[in-house]
Amino acid sequence: MAASRGAVCVSGLHGHLDLLAGTDEAGHTVLRRQSFAAPVHISKPHRDEGWLVVNMASPSPGLLSGDRVNVNVEVESGARLLLTAPSANRIHTMAEGFAEVSQRFTVNAGGSLDVWPEYLIPQKDSAYRQRTRIEIEKGGTLLWTESIAPGRTAHGEVFAFRDLRIATDITHGARLLVRERYHIGSAHPSIAALRRIFPEGYYASIVCIAPGLEALDSAVSDSAWVGVTRLSAGAFAVKVLAPDSPTLRSTVAIMRARLQRAAAIVSPSLRRVTGEVPT
Question: Residues 11-31: what's their mean pLDDT?
Answer without folding.
Answer: 94
